[in-house]
Write a structure and sequence with these properties.
The complex is a heterodimer of chains A (about 400) and B (about 220). Chain A is of the alpha+beta class. Chain A has 2 domains: about 180 residues, no CATH class; about 170 residues, no CATH class. Helix content of chain A is about 55%, strand content about 20%. Chain A contains 13 helices and 12 strands. In chain A, helix 3 crosses helix 8 and helix 11 packs antiparallel against helix 12. Chain B has about 220 residues and is α/β, with parallel strands linked by helices. Helix content of chain B is about 35%, strand content about 30%. Chain B starts with a strand and ends with a strand. The chains are: A alpha+beta (about 400), B alpha/beta (about 220). Chains A and B meet through helix 1, helix 10 and helix 13 of A and helix 2 and helix 3 of B. The structure holds adenosine-5'-diphosphate and magnesium ion.
Chain lengths: ~400, ~220
């Protein structure tokens, strides 16, 4: 058995029916393209979140109300959650020498107005330390300072989108905007951060926590954002926060402390699962493509019945015929797979040019996976037609019209 | 003794009906013989030829090909025998339409692990022998019937088999092409190749050294 000859025959038989071969491989092409593209988008999102999180400032701990499951994530099924209050944040800082900043954060959405324009925007109440803790930068004006917080001043630091939508081209500093029913003076403009994964990070307003508590008429916090002095102190800081708050909350651990790494890990896990699910769905179209290949191979076996009979008459063994037809099926699916890989790579490269908010990242494992998957599909769906060919009785095959 | 058949029977089963096509054939063929098998259509000539060529299996009886008991051999071993020791020539030529003459002649060698340059040389030699060296790149559809049959004979000869089996090789040819084909067979036979051909034309059969007639699955004349 001559492998080169088998490959040559496969090439000739595929090339003698180019359009048919192309249509047959289309299913595999689409499947492989989809797998590579979806995995690239998933990977891109994962990488984006990774860099974005590290940009949020390192050594951050977040204290949220309610006890969550060990896995982390959102608050689930907690009964009678005790609120986190402003004093909790101050106490944490006072009791731990590992903590650099402890910021009580209040958050909500509110309607904002300026002149005839209005908009519903995300409002975050923070203290003066927040900007340093989160490594935020400002374009013009200044951040919220200690006296703003202490006297509950109605001042606001606004994001780019808010400025554009509400104030237009005018100089924002000193402008008065209405948040809820109270007038706030704009004291600073944030540096732009951009739109990613559908979230407009610039569509945001920072005000002092004290003012936010009045605005939302609440004394409970959204979270306490804690900046630890160094990475080595994170565990110690976490323990001290727990100790302090449990004591204050009458011996009950009714809050959760996340580290940035834990949150990142959770997000990554969710994204990984999502990517796998999407790739799995795309893989179904690969299977459909495989069925297409099986179908065309059955047609080909039938068309070449006399050829099979003749080959057997001059000495081809069953395994020679089997190998020939499996090779052809694999050749078809591999050609489809390779075209699909090229298409997937092209899309992965082109999409961020047109949709900047959709980061993509081509991963080698997706390419290998697609390659091996399309090859196995050729083998799997090629076996049945090839067995049919190999099992033909030579005389019956030679007489076939 | 090249071929020894004794009480060969062949039964085809079609659904529930069993059709006995060969009803006990006894036949010995020596090396270098030239045999014509004659008989009415449907008498079982092709069936007998296919059994001799190991393309089909007999239902009962004894068949020895060069002292090999064919009944005891596996399908792969029969394929090996067809490849190395038997050359088939068919009424309808059975060339592969997608391939040029040269590739068609190379075909049996592909299943015998002969390297490609050697394949080419041998195929060219055989095409020359049958007077077709000027048409090696022609596809079957670009050749006349007589030319196609000559390519098919080159293919049958290329493995240097002991025996050529031809099933009505002139059946689809005009009489002058048929004569040329018969001349090739006669020449081959003079070189020592054993030839068995099926025909129902007496003019063709007279070229053979021995004529066998089959009637209703039994040997009417010429057998042992
Ligand atoms: N594969 C088969 N299945 C069933 N019947 C067959 C088969 N091959 C041949 N026959 C039958 O066997 C008989 C002899 O066929 P064959 O040997 O081809 O005759 P001949 O070559 O003498 O014309 C015919 O009646 C034919 O219909
Ligand atoms: Mg016949």
């Amino acid at each position: 058995m001559d492998v080169i000859e088998v490959l040559r025959v496969s090439r000739d038989s595929i090339m003698s029916n180019r359009i048919r071969a192309f249509l047959t491989t289309l299913g595999v092409i689409i499947g492989v393209t989809a797998v590579i593209l979806l995995v690239s988008i998933g990977e891109g999102a994962r990488r984006y979140i990774q860099t974005e999180f590290s940009g949020l400032g390192s050594n951050i701990l977040i204290v949220v109300p309610g006890k969550t499951s060990k896995e982390g994530g959102t608050h689930m099924g907690t009964s009678a959650v005790r609120k986190l209050v402003y004093d909790d944040a101050l106490l944490i800082k006072k009791r731990s020498r590992h903590i650099q900043h402890s910021v009580p954060v209040v958050a909500g959405t509110s309607l904002i107005k300026h002149g005839s324009k209005s908009r519903s925007t995300y409002i975050i109440g923070v203290t003066e330390d927040y900007f340093e803790a989160r490594s935020l930068t400002i374009d013009s004006g200044r951040f919220i300072n200690t006296s703003d917080v202490d006297s509950g001043r109605n001042v606001a630091v606004i994001g780019r989108t808010v400025k554009k939508e509400i104030l237009g081209e005018a100089n924002p500093l000193g402008a008065l905007i209405t948040i809820g029913s109270t007038k706030y003076r704009v004291i600073g403009l944030m540096a732009p951060k951009g739109v990613t994964l559908g979230f407009d990070i610039d569509d945001i307003i920072f005000i002092p926590t004290t003012s936010a508590q009045v605005l939302f008429d609440t004394d409970s916090l959204f979270n306490i954002t804690v900046k630890v002095r160094s990475e080595e102190e994170i565990t110690a800081a976490k323990n001290e926060i727990k100790e302090t708050l449990i004591k204050k909350h009458a011996g009950e651990e009714d809050f959760t402390v996340f580290s940035q790494d834990e949150m990142l890990a959770t997000m990554e896990k969710i994204l990984k699962i999502m990517t796998a699910v999407l790739a799995g769905i795309a893989a179904i179209s690969l299977i459909v493509g495989g069925i297409g290949i099986m179908n065309i191979m059955l047609v080909s076996v039938k068309e070449r019945t006399r050829e099979i009979g003749l080959r057997k008459a001059v000495g081809a063994k069953n395994r020679d015929i089997l190998f020939q037809f499996i090779t052809e099926a694999v050749a078809l699916s591999l050609v489809g797979g390779l075209i699909g890989i090229l298409c997937g790579m092209a899309f992965t490269w082109v999409i961020p040019l047109f949709i900047p908010s959709l980061p993509t990242s081509l991963s080698a494992w997706a390419i290998f996976l697609a390659f091996f998957f399309s090859m196995s599909i050729g083998v799997f769906f090629g076996v049945y037609p090839a067995k049919k060919a190999a099992g033909m009785d030579p005389i019956t095959a030679l007489r076939y019209e | 003794m090249l071929i020894h058949l004794s009480d060969i029977r062949k039964t085809y089963v079609l659904g529930t009906v069993a059709l006995e096509v060969l009803k006990g054939i006894d036949l010995d063929i020596e090396k270098g013989d030239f045999i014509a098998i004659m008989g009415a259509s449907g008498s079982g000539k092709s069936t007998l030829l296919n059994i001799i060529g190991c393309l089909d299996r007999h239902t009962s009886g004894m068949y020895h090909f060069e002292d090999i008991d064919i009944a005891k051999r596996s399908d792969d071993e029969l394929a090996e025998i067809r490849n190395k020791r038997v050359g088939f020539v068919f009424q309808t030529f059975n060339l592969l339409p997608r391939f040029p003459a040269l590739k068609n002649v190379e075909l049996p060698m592909i299943y015998s692990s002969i390297p490609s340059n050697e394949r080419r040389d041998k195929a060219l030699e055989m095409l020359k022998k049958v007077g077709m060296s000027h048409r090696i790149e022609h596809k079957p559809s670009e050749l006349s019937g007589g030319e196609q049959q000559r390519v098919a004979i080159a293919r049958a000869l290329v493995m240097q088999p002991q025996i050529i089996l031809a099933d009505e090789p002139t059946g689809n040819l005009d009489s002058s092409s048929g004569k040329e084909i018969m001349n090739i067979f006669k020449e081959l036979n003079s070189e020592g190749v054993t030839i068995i051909l099926v025909t129902h034309e007496a003019a063709i059969a007279k070229d053979a050294k021995r004529i066998i007639t089959i009637k209703d699955g039994v040997c009417d004349s010429g057998c042992n």
